[in-house]
Specification:
The structure holds 2 protein chains of 2 kinds. Chain A is an all-alpha fold. Helices cover 70% and strands 1% of the residues of chain A. The radius of gyration of chain B is 20 Å and the shape is globular. The chains are: A mainly alpha, B alpha/beta.
Chain lengths: 275, 249
């Protein structure tokens, strides 16, 4: 730096790659990530009586409904509840983290015009919020698992790996969609519809063997298929995934994150006059 | 921290130009975009918000920016706040910059004043510990008393503005950017705000000030810059620049 004292110097000419710069700034602003996650959680439950308990009650309620419907209509076994809840937690995390990332970059637009903050911050904070919710949702998941006589096996200590992949994938998609949504308002609406379709293409509420064999290949094109299975198998089946499954899912996660991050960082300089 | 005697160039703009590239018509929806893209009807229109700006602001100076709406004043502030990058030229800023956030931008209505102070501090790049140390002073300056623990949706607009100003100015940035917002709050609070800005100047902070009120610019700033249609018309002593600006009307 030109000045020997500790004054921060910003020079528009001196620039590392936008994607890397974004990452370095994010580390500097980690306190804002924590504060934003805190805000998201506080605000969501501020005026409700049960507060954060809703994070657990919400998937539990959906699971009970689905379990009743499926056991009566399709004759599913009791353990279906554990199956559906594990998938649902995964899916909710993905849907919430990506949706929040988009909503917040648009909400934060007024801020981004006036003050410098790393622009990936909103998506990362949405992810952090999702992780808090996910950890809380593991409590009802374990309860349902025990209640439906699915034994809890030591394989659940493998869970951090699929959660990591799920996070990377969600962040990548969240950044990708929000960099387009900044320019076009209706992308947010389109994404809602896409999410609904996407959920039915993922093994969330149905099991693979409920599907006609001819549709299976479509489902297998879906990245969420691999992520959900990687998350579910250690809980529901009590088995560790094959190495090849870990490899496929990890690659999907990394590719999604890199593509989303680079595209977003590339477009981020325009946000100040696009939002 | 700023040295006591030797000043340095706090802000340097060298041949700066900013180009906004936008479709010539507003295409708000993705559907329209795709249709027009297929018809090859997307025409980008370039608009130069600023051109060939050369400006140096010494540490400790207070500079007023004057000019019509849309002249490029806010774009210039955005460059200095690092929100926007120049298309051409070079921007160098030495010191920590804090913009005075307009009307409590960044506050969340459901959170209490206290929670918002910490959130706002984090937006400005401060750690929790640093904010804890400032907290008492901020509440006192904003004259909020016990309301600090009430959700901000229950605040009056004056209370919002006061808290916003108190947070932004307690953090003691090296460079403070103020974009036309001091019209909020009652008269006594406005006086207090001006007194605080004067404190800033006395302490050696650099001040950048945008206002349509020539009176305020004249009172606050030693120097002024006049921008017209993206060009820097004149920089100099406030009274002279204001006079030239008025004569051009």
């Amino acid at each position: 730096m030109e000045n020997s004292n500790s004054i921060p110097v910003y020079d528009s000419k001196r620039r590392i790659s936008p994607a890397l710069e974004e990452f370095m700034e994010l580390i500097k602003y980690r306190n804002l990530i924590v504060q934003t996650v805190r805000r998201n959680i506080l605000v969501r439950y501020k005026r409700s009586v049960l507060g954060v308990a809703w994070t657990m009650l919400n998937p539990l309620g959906t699971t009970i409904i689905l379990a009743i419907v499926f056991s009566n209509v399709f004759g599913s076994t009791a353990s279906y509840a554990a199956y559906v809840l594990s998938g649902l937690i995964c899916w909710n995390f993905f849907a919430q983290a990506t949706n929040d990332a988009i909503a917040q970059i648009i909400w934060g637009g007024g801020l981004l015009k006036r003050i410098y903050i790393p622009r990936t911050l909103f998506a990362v904070a949405a992810l952090g919020t999702g992780l808090v919710n996910l950890s809380l949702a593991l409590v009802p998941l374990l309860m349902v698992t025990i209640a439906t006589n699915v034994p809890i096996r030591p394989t659940i200590i493998f869970l951090p790996i699929p959660i990591l992949f799920l996070s990377m994938f969600s962040l990548g998609i969240g950044l990708f969609v929000s960099s387009i949504a900044v320019q076009f308002v209706d992308v947010t609406e389109m994404y809602q519809i896409l999410l609904t379709a996407w959920m039915y293409l993922s093994p969330v509420i149905y099991t693979e063997d409920m599907l006609p064999a001819k549709f299976l290949w479509i489902v297998k094109l879906n990245p969420m298929y691999y992520i959900i299975n990687l998350f579910r198998d250690p809980i529901y089946l009590g088995r560790l995934p094959e190495l090849s499954d870990i490899f496929i899912t990890g690659s999907i996660a990394i590719i999604s994150l890199i593509v989303g991050w680079f595209l977003f960082a590339q477009k981020a300089d325009e946000f100040a006059y696009r939002i | 921290m700023p040295q006591q005697f030797a000043t340095y160039k706090a802000i340097q703009l060298e041949n700066v130009g900013v180009r906004y590239r936008a479709p010539s018509e507003r295409i708000p929806s993705f559907k329209d975009f795709v249709i027009r893209w297929l018809q090859r009807k997307i025409k980008n229109k370039d608009f130069w918000a600023l051109q060939d700006i050369n400006l140096t602001i010494e540490q400790g100076e207070s500079l007023g920016l004057i000019g019509h709406n849309g002249a490029g004043k806010s774009t210039l502030l955005k460059l200095i706040a690092r929100v926007l990058r120049p298309t051409n030229g070079r921007v160098i800023v030495r010191g920590q910059v804090a913009p005075l956030l307009e009307f409590g931008a960044g506050f969340h209505p459901e959170l209490t004043g206290r929670e918002n102070v910490f959130l706002n501090g984090a937006i400005l790049g401060y750690k929790r510990k640093e904010m804890e140390e400032k907290f008492g002073r901020i509440v006192e300056f904003a004259e909020l008393g016990e309301f600090i623990d009430a959700p901000m949706r229950t605040y009056s607009s004056g209370m919002w503005a006061r808290l916003g100003f108190a947070v932004a100015t307690d953090i003691k940035p090296d460079i403070l950017i103020i974009d036309e917002i001091l019209s909020v709050g009652d008269e006594s609070f406005q006086r207090k705000s001006y007194a605080r800005m004067q404190e800033f100047i006395d302490r050696g902070a650099t001040l950048l000030f945008v206002s349509h009120s020539m009176q305020v610019v004249e009172a606050m700033c030693q120097k002024a810059a006049w921008i017209n249609h993206g060009h820097l018309m004149m920089v100099g002593k406030t009274s002279e620049v204001i006079q030239a600006y008025r004569e051009s009307q």
